[in-house]
Specification:
The chain has 746 residues and is mainly beta. Among the domains are: 88 residues, Immunoglobulin-like, CATH 2.60.40.60; 102 residues, Sandwich (Immunoglobulin-like), CATH 2.60.40.60; 61 residues, no CATH class; 97 residues, Sandwich (Immunoglobulin-like), CATH 2.60.40.60; 113 residues, Cadherins (Immunoglobulin-like). Helix content is 7%, strand content 31%. The protein contains four helices and 41 strands. Strands 34, 36, 39, 40 and 41 form a five-stranded mixed β-sheet that branches. Strands 3-5-8-7 form a four-stranded antiparallel β-sheet, with no helix packed on it. The longest helix is centred in the last third of the chain and has 28 residues. The radius of gyration is 52 Å and the shape is elongated.
């Protein structure tokens, strides 16, 4: 019997023993098969127990077998609709419906699958960035959300990429921050850009779901253009000159219309009429170039639109004038012979490798020499340099195609002695060389059932390479030499840059080995050829009869919701410390050869030891060994080692074969009183002997003052609340003393 005092009334409580068995706590999302969860109370199996289920979804989504405790999910579950269900199971007596145990609560979690694509909730987006911004200037950040579980697998791990808007803008794969990718973007040339951003889950790997959004980016103006006076070489649409024909008639009779009828400048100039002044206005239709042609001739006709037939013979009612237009020279900036340049340079080419040459010339009559330079804001990291005299561009360091495949810079040309310059865009493509080994396209674990049949394909692996793949170039796969002759798995190269992994045997067991590591060599067959060894992780899982994976842990267990990694580490650390203490204690125990609990005589006084073992009374002759008590009293005390040995009084030695234990005890008491090496305090010697005439009464210390509890303790009730406890213990005769059982022997 295990009893303990609880509360002021001395209520006796009994320790409850739980007997529930929890077999599984998760259901795979969208799974259409029958899912079974077992929650049962350990019983004798006689059918007298009935199981009752209550809580979220009980009776509709989850039903329980009242005989076995098996819980079935009746329909597919959506984690995004509800991630977990809290249920309560209880075992009751089938005939009386009385509870056998308190209700037991548990949680069923819905295990996520990748069934939701990323979504941009706030798109489309609008952003503004100043023109001429440096490369890498942040424009804005777009964020997509995924309804899948972010704590399980890669279903909600998003990677951002740009589908439209290159090479002007780029996006950071992990954060979704859009940045400028080209320098020298001029608002006066182009003001708006339409960019399309994609977010893909599964870390961007094959098979992931994706979503897109549009971002309209507008370049804002900065003061990057100085004021200029118009040059003599006018621009299209500018007025060149005016002329007017005189007609003395009034009103409509004096109205004159003008038109160009001849001349070598008819394709370059146009003529309109000013509605207010009735003048002929000559405007430039196309640009003119002093260096190409310095003058043009036009013939203009003026005529009356309203002619009176009576005076038609007095005509003709029109006139012509010849106009000479002279083109004046203007100081123009140099002109590049090409509107833009595109060059190529090999990856990892040494410093000083020529990239290409640009050429500009002065179209003015003076034909001044031209000097070249690369504006630093277009080549921030200074990958290139240019010869200022001949325009040859060279590299300043080896270039890495995988880091940056295109370099877009500008080259400026300026006449010597003049401040006007002109710029041209130069696009430099880094040609790839095979300097990166291939690797697995994905690093996901392969999950394999214990009951997998030999010859079954458990995985098809593919590879990716940071380098560009040449035409008809493909990857080849093979097992690493150290596992080429293993008896578990084999590999077949499919000759299409993929390989299939086959099982060679059956009888896999998680208890024997739950994880297998299969090293695979991948060759890219490039020039020069590059290869690498990648390890495929194969995990053995428990499956049902339909090969549906149930669990991949060595021993299935469920962690409480919200238990962090730090808490797990703390729990494991505590377990290790406790094990270390136990091992140390056992080691010391074996070394000293002493009992697990040692009581020194100097520490035993006034202590009550409860053994929870009731003695047999006077009839019990097996509670002690009388032969041990008959040993010679020459046996020395072991609580202290005496410095001097005094002889024992001869009168205190009992007969060798005496069975008078009473005399033996008296002798030991006299010996202790006369022994100068004994402690100065009373030492209790405990023997399994009750003495003559004993009524086998209680040996509790509560009755140490007198042999019988004949005192009246009712006066304790008047001593106040501080003595309430003592009054409850001693104040009544029928008080139950639970510290020491009646008839206990010590």
């Amino acid at each position: 019997r295990h009893r303990q005092r609880a509360g002021k009334e001395g209520q006796v409580l009994h320790r409850s023993k739980r007997g529930w068995v929890w077999n599984q706590f998760f259901v795979i999302e969208e799974y259409t098969g029958s899912v079974r969860l077992t929650v049962s109370y350990v019983d004798s199996g006689d059918g007298n127990i009935k199981y009752i289920l209550s809580g979220e979804g009980a009776g509709t989504i989850f039903v329980i077998d009242d005989k076995t405790g098996n819980i079935h999910a009746t329909k597919t579950l959506d984690r995004e609709e509800q991630a977990q269900y809290t249920l309560t199971a209880q075992a009751v007596a089938r005939d009386t419906m009385k509870p056998l145990e308190p209700p037991s609560e548990f949680i069923v979690k819905v295990q996520d699958i990748n069934d939701n694509p990323p979504e941009f909730l706030h798109g489309p987006y609008y952003a503004r960035v100043p023109e001429m911004s440096n490369v890498g200037t942040s424009v804005m950040q777009v964020t997509a959300t995924d309804a899948d579980d972010p704590t399980y697998g890669n279903s909600a791990r998003l990677v951002y990429s740009i589908l439209q808007g290159q090479p002007y803008f780029s996006v950071e794969p992990q954060t979704g921050i859009i940045r400028t990718a080209l320098p020298n973007m001029d608002r006066e040339a182009r003001q708006e850009y339409d960019v399309v951003i994609q977010a893909k889950d599964m870390g961007g790997h094959m098979g992931g779901l994706s979503g897109t959004t549009e971002v309209k980016i507008t370049l804002t103006d900065v003061n990057d253009n100085p004021p200029k006076f118009p040059q003599s070489e006018s621009l299209p649409g500018e007025e060149v000159g005016r002329l007017k024909a005189k007609d003395p008639d009034m009103g409509d009779n004096g109205m004159v219309n003008y038109r160009l009828v001849d001349g070598d400048g008819m394709g370059l100039f146009e003529l309109t009429t000013d509605s207010e002044t009735r003048e002929a206005v000559i405007k430039l239709k196309k640009p003119v170039d002093f260096e190409t042609k310095r003058s043009y001739t036009l013939k203009v006709e003026g005529s009356n639109p309203h002619v009176d037939p009576q005076f038609l013979a007095w005509g003709p009612y029109k006139d012509e004038a010849t106009i000479k237009i002279s083109v004046e020279d203007a100081d123009e900036p140099p002109v590049f012979v090409a509107p833009s340049y595109t060059f190529e340079v090999e990856e990892n080419a040494p410093q000083g490798t020529p990239v290409g040459r640009v050429h500009a010339k002065d179209t003015d009559v003076a034909n001044n020499p031209v000097r070249y330079m690369i504006p630093r804001y277009t080549d921030v990291e200074q990958f290139f340099s240019i010869n200022s005299e001949d325009g040859m561009i060279t590299t300043t360091r080896p270039l890495d195609r995988e880091a940056q495949a295109w370099h877009n810079i500008s080259v400026s040309a300026t006449e010597i002695g003049h401040h006007q310059d002109t710029k041209v865009r130069v696009n430099i493509r880094v040609k790839d060389i095979n300097d990166n080994p291939p690797e697995f396209a994905t690093n996901n674990e392969v999950l394999m059932c214990e009951s997998v049949a030999p010859g079954k394909v458990i995985e098809t692996v593919s590879a990716v390479d940071k380098d560009e793949m040449a035409h008809r170039q493909h990857f080849t796969f093979s097992l690493a030499p150290e596992v080429a002759h293993n008896h578990n798995f084999s590999l077949k190269d499919n000759r299409d840059s993929s390989a299939s992994i086959y099982v060679l045997r059956k009888g896999f067991s998680r208890l024997t080995q739950d994880v297998y590591y299969l090293p695979i060599e991948i060759n890219d067959n490039g020039f020069p050829a590059m290869s690498s060894t990648n390890t495929l992780t194969i995990r053995v899982c428990s499956c049902d009869s339909r090969d549906t994976i149930l669990s991949c842990n060595v021993e299935p267990y469920v962690l409480p919701a919200g238990l962090s990694t730090g808490a797990l580490i703390a729990i494991l650390a505590c377990i290790v410390i406790l094990l270390a203490i136990v091992v140390l204690f056992v080691a010391l125990r074996r070394q000293k050869k002493e009992p697990l609990i040692v009581f020194e005589e100097e520490d035993i006084r006034e202590n009550i030891i409860t053994y929870d073992d009731e003695g047999g009374g006077e009839e019990d002759t097996e509670a002690f060994d009388i032969a041990t008590l008959q040993k010679s009293i020459k046996t020395q005390r072991n609580d202290i080692k005496p410095e001097l040995q005094y002889p024992i009084r001869p009168g205190g030695r009992p007969a060798a074969n005496s069975v008078d234990v009473d005399d033996f005890i008296k002798t030991r008491i006299a010996e202790a009183d006369s022994d100068p090496t004994a402690p100065p305090y009373d030492s209790i010697q405990i023997y399994g002997y009750e003495g003559r005439g004993s009524l086998a009464g209680s040996l509790s210390s509560l009755e140490s003052v007198t042999t019988e509890s004949d005192l009246d303790y009712d006066y304790l009730q008047s001593w106040g609340p501080r003595f309430k406890k003592l009054a409850d213990l001693y104040g009544t005769k029928d008080c139950c003393m639970n510290d020491v059982d009646d008839g206990e022997d010590s």
